[in-house]
Amino acid sequence: MLKVYKSHESGPLEELGLKNLEKGSWIKIVDPTPYELKVVARLTDVEPDFLRSALDDEERSHTDVEDNSVMVLTNVPVVRGNDSYDTLPLAIILTEDYIITVCLEETSVLEKFDEANARSFRTFKKTRFLFQILYNSATFFLRYLRQISKISDEIELKLRDSMENKEILRLLELQKGLTYFNAALRSNGAVLDKLLRLRTNKALHPILKVYEEDEDLLEDVIIENKQAREMVDMYSTIMSRMADTFSSIISNNQNLVMKFLAAMTIILAIPTVISSFFGMNVPVPMADQSWAFVFIALIALVIAGSSAYLLWRKDMF
């Protein structure tokens, strides 16, 4: 999918086409075809490798600079299911005339930049628009981290009552999402540090113009990213310790079950041994007495009951 938008000074966001492409436009590319990439590369004079960089879902965040363009590749958070979180590469390419975004799929980070919110951003203010996208990405990291925290609290309450495999697997899925977030936020932090250095590069001023308001916005992005990293570290530690704790509880419960089964085996073995003595095919005492069965059963019951009492006193039940 390929769409072109351009902001007007008065506020509205206009949708254009490649045939009437204007300076200051935002070219939004989602899951592009090779033909679309070829056309955009030709019209904007952008390095084709820049456009293809975000099409590898394992690509890490980085920044590349060419003579006529700057490419910022960042990883943005996505939700794959109820408890499944992941990251996705998003390439943001700045030229003197255009800003281009390339992603494998639609992402919530870019959904905010639409007609309804057209007054909050300007496509022709490319540097500020770049920082706004990065800021939006950082806020979504924070939002999803809070969701993960709430889900983990819910799982903890359920695990206190019953150790079901389903809840433990949910906890594992959340831990996997935190691992993805941790790797993405660290590499995104390196990108932000490089942007801090690039903003003072006079050779890039025609492409990367940074004003005072943009400086403040970039500082906010760095702060949000740092906060998200700290939250990831904290939640990862909490969930790791939670998993270790419930693993110990499961092991302890298994030991209790084994102890109970061992005690029951001892108790049941007593009447089995007594009945085996009196069931041999040789002459035995009381073989001719009518009350012998009841007497032997009572003796076995008394001994088994005494054994059960002793085991109970030893805390075997």
Notable characteristics:
single chain, 317 residues, alpha+beta, seven-stranded mixed β-sheet, 7 helices, 7 strands, 56% helix, 15% strand, rod-shaped
Count of DSSP-assigned helices: 7
Helix content: 55-70%
Order of helices and strands, N to C? Answer: EEEHHEEEEHHHHH
Oligomer: single chain
Q: In angstroms, what is the radius of gyration? A: 34 Å
Give me the count of strands.
7
- Shape category: rod-shaped
In what order do the strands lie side by side in the largest sheet? 2-1-3-7-6-5-4
Which blocks of ≥5 consecutive residues have pLDDT under 50?
Answer: none
Distance between the termini: 66 Å
Percent strand equals 15-25%
Structural class: alpha+beta
Mean pLDDT over the full residue set: 83
| Sheet having the most strands | 7 strands, mixed
Mind sketching the topology for me?
Blueprint: E1 2-7, E2 13-16, E3 25-30, H1 34-44, H2 48-52, E4 62-65, E5 69-79, E6 85-95, E7 98-103, H3 108-111, H4 126-161, H5 165-198, H6 212-277, H7 292-313
Parallel strand pairs: 3-7
Antiparallel strand pairs: 1-2, 1-3, 4-5, 5-6, 6-7
Helix pairs in contact: 4-5, 4-6, 5-6, 6-7
Please, could you describe this protein's structure?
The protein is α+β, with helices and mostly antiparallel strands and 317 residues long. 56% of the residues lie in helices and 15% in strands. It has helices spanning 34-44, 48-52, 108-111, 126-161, 165-198, 212-277, 292-313; strands spanning 2-7, 13-16, 25-30, 62-65, 69-79, 85-95, 98-103. The longest helix is centred in the C-terminal third of the chain and has 66 residues, at 212-277.
